[in-house]
Amino acid sequence: MGERHIDIALRVNGDDVRERVEARKTLVDFLRDDLGLTGTHIGCEQGVCGACTVLLDDEVVRGCLVLAVQCDGAVVQTIEGISDSGAIADLQDAFQRRNALQCGFCTPGILIGAQALLAQWVSSNGSVPSREEIREHLSGNYCRCTGYQAIVDAIESVAQTRAGANT
Amino acid sequence: MKIADDQPSGLTALDRPNSYIGRSVPRPNLARLTQGRGQYVTDVVLPRMAHVAFVRSPHAHARISGIATADAKTSTGVIAVVTGAELAKVITPWVGVLTHLKGIKSAPQHAIAVERACWQGEAVCAVVAKSRAEAEDACALVAVDYEVLAAVTDAETALDAKTPVIHPELGDNLTFERVLNAGDPDKGFAEADAVVETTFLFGRHTGVTNEPRAIVADWNPGEQRLTVYQGTQAPHMTQNLFAKHLALDEHQVRVITKDVGGSFGIKVHIYADEMATAALSKLLKRPVKFVADRFESFNTDIHARDHRVKAKIGVKRDGVITAFEIDDLTGIGP
């Protein structure tokens, strides 16, 4: 039998983190239970609902499908990090103005997914994703309250504003 | 927070000072929810807090002939392993009826099954540990002997003479019936040129909240107060019921409902595992947390619909409906 606990060192939201974790612990449990980053939520624990979405080395991942020990040496960003840095202030404002959330449980994961989508499109080549492309990108994030319309509206409007600012 | 529409209405504050009419009103919780600063019950952590997981019946109806807990009690992190009979010493059973449905009958329900499980997924033993993972580890070490009994799963045959009665003390399997007769339907059908009859089947469904059911119960013997953080739609009702069934006065119970990750009607009900969590806190004199996982949600959240409706109308050639009759049958479970 292998080691039950393993030391890991990683960077989370700009902070250096050194912790000893159970080998079986998922990244989302590590973020929530060990680091107190409760903005990342747990909905299904099987990679379906997207509530635990975080950025791992700038890639969108499901925090419930990654083990904490796999993140040794990695850079992790959660909703708390990209919120405090101001990186998604325009997305947050658009979600608030359009009431693109009700219970808010899925919202951190959707904001992280949206930010990654806009990084792929607007930030890399100045183009704006279509509504279909926004929906496809967010197809792994379940929202049970809103019906998605206002979420797509909010992301589309921010894409257009960011693209306009780039030109 | 000031809300600005994408397309301003053309009116200004000078037109209608302090008026909300025609404007979007900002919801005060949106800023914190979009920043990951919400506080859902699943986020609540208290000093000395323990976690509970439940061993659940794999059978729809079974007599519990034995529960072996010795191995679970010595598992890493385990604080207590509690059966239904043990928990029944601190919490009384309740009867789930609605006062506006006169004559509805239902059997007493225990927080954890005592002697008999009446539905697949009913908790038969609780394991309280330092972490949820350790509680689940130990659940796998609890050995329950079941004597499988006949289950009643079809509402159409539930009242047949050969179908077993699940709660003999209630007399039969009929929980509630309402008959409404108005006018003279027999005459109406006799006068009709045609009678049309059909059966509608409505699919069973459930709410599927993103945040599963969750509760943190904190009995403080020093203050003689129970503080419950609960994702519920009815905190005043649960305050009343925690008090009633845990031998407390209502003023000793405080139910706090902060952010709730979706309810859709499923969080307006009393759930045995949530009552058990409060009872375990009282028994163990420390905070206990229960968060249903997704499997438990599908297995234990309340369902709706699943009605079979036989409907019949009598019509005249000119389209006038002379009579109608509706027979709506639904199974609500034991």
What is the fold's blueprint, element by element?
The complex is a heterodimer of chains A (167) and B (334).
Chain A: E1 5-12, E2 15-22, H1 27-34, E3 53-56, E4 59-62, E5 75-77, H2 79-84, H3 89-97, H4 107-125, H5 131-137, H6 149-166
Parallel strand pairs in A: 1-5
Antiparallel strand pairs in A: 1-2, 3-4, 3-5
Chain B: H1 30-34, E1 50-56, E2 62-68, H2 70-73, E3 78-83, H3 84-87, E4 116-117, E5 123-129, H4 132-139, E6 143-148, H5 185-191, E7 194-201, E8 204-206, E9 214-220, E10 225-230, H6 235-245, E11 253-256, H7 272-284, E12 288-291, H8 294-300, E13 303-305, E14 307-315, E15 321-330
Parallel strand pairs in B: 1-12, 10-11
Antiparallel strand pairs in B: 1-5, 2-4, 2-6, 3-5, 7-14, 8-13, 9-10, 9-12, 14-15
How far apart, in Å, are the first and last alpha carbons of chain B?
Answer: 50 Å
Q: Within the CATH hierarchy, at the fold level, what is the topology of the largest domain in chain A?
A: DNA polymerase, domain 1
Output the structural class of chain B: alpha+beta
Tally of separate domains of chain A? 2
Residue fraction in strands of chain A: 15-25%
The top-level CATH class of the largest domain in chain A is Mainly Alpha
